[in-house]
Amino acid sequence: MTSPRRIHPNRYKGNPHGDRSRRHSSFDNNHAGLSLGSRDVIVAGQWVVLGRIGEGSFGEIFEVRDINTHRHYAIKRERRKENGGSQLKHENVMYDVLAGGDGIPQCHWYGHFDGFTCIVMDLLGPSLGQLAQSVSCMELDIATDLVSQMVSIVEHIHSRGVILRDVKPENFVFGAHLPPLYNDNDGVKPTCKQVFQDYWCTNDPKLYAIDFGLTCYWRDPHTGVAYSDTKKHIRDKTGTARYASIQVHRGNLPSRRDDLESIGYILLDLVLGGRLPWAGVHAKNSKAGWDKVWRVKVDTPLSELCAGLPQAVVDFIAYTRSLRFMDQPDYDRLRGFLHAAAAGPDHYNQPDQIVTSPPPLSNETDDDHYELFAMDDMKHHLPTVPETPKKVGWNTHKRLDMTDWTND
Ligand SMILES: Nc1ncnc2c1ncn2[C@@H]1O[C@H](COP(=O)(O)OP(=O)(O)O)[C@@H](O)[C@H]1O
Ligand SMILES: [Mg+2]
């Protein structure tokens, strides 16, 4: 077993035992002390900006300190738009709708500052995406445990009438007490178990969901009646192609089933060490990228996709794919698959009612919009000026120009 000190020689300094009482900051900043300097940025007279800790395709995240309590929080900001539209405003509403659930951070303040719309929320730690990047492999029992937590968090979100629509490892984060992770490309990466035991000093770190910017209601929040499938074809895809469900690739309206299918792809991604067959697909633009990923997803039989993995993993994904638009997912059953996958084949009786073959690209019974999509595709494939293929993220978020909150 590789010694963690050899893997992250500097990361362990001052924290050889993963001291959980210490809050770990993932930025280098000499303003982390308690005194206020004249150049400190203080949001709304209360939150001292300490440094930037993250960014997604849409927002930037800073660590802040409450000047009264000295507690640390995270602030997410979005530049204010002239038309008044705001994803963070929507996110703030969703924090209220989802409040109180296990794995849902608390929102402490929402407002405007310095040309930005801001949310102050609980400070959290490294993301599942960062963990996946910094380990050589993730053991099946760890992956199934983390994914089981995700199923429970998503169950809570669905129970409040909401779907996430952007389920990906970067949108699930661990607690703030866990030390930051470093993706040391030159060194030997530790296994996930090594990180947990030797660096984080925990066997079961808790996950939290963040980023509710793309959430929407699957049922009417006033009447509680589920929205039915409008059969509207969606051309501009929402979410992240790598984890998108096949129905979302088709341009169908997302519902609860699609969040769960995405969780299935995360499970695979974690245990395959990022080697999903559609990972690393190159395309000249987002539309072409989404289409290529879609093709690989439907062309790869589940048995091949999950080769060498327990049957319960196949069944997890097959079950999520078998759900219809309005179906109430059986979250216990999904957790059961995960439990069985970790327990081994001796503890598993395969359910026989799940079809394990992937849905075909066409001739799908509940997809009478395939024709329309095919026509859109043809329009899209009219000759264009050749471009150099590039690797693109295929997020639908638009990255905004953002100025810095300089504080040094
Ligand atoms: N409350 C938080 N505490 C610590 N880190 C966070 C927090 N919220 C977000 N982050 C980090 O910032 C990244 C981007 O945040 P996110 O809300 O997903 O932004 P976006 O909407 O742009 O995708 C996350 O992947 C995570 O690493
Ligand atoms: Mg995000």
TrEMBL record:
Keywords: ATP-binding, Nucleotide-binding. Residues 1-30 are annotated as: Disordered. ATP binds at K76. GO terms for molecular function: ATP binding; protein kinase activity. This is Protein kinase domain-containing protein. The lineage of its organism: Eukaryota, Fungi, Fungi incertae sedis, Mucoromycota, Mucoromycotina. It comes from Absidia glauca (Pin mould). Residues 47-338 form the Protein kinase domain. Pfam families: Pkinase.
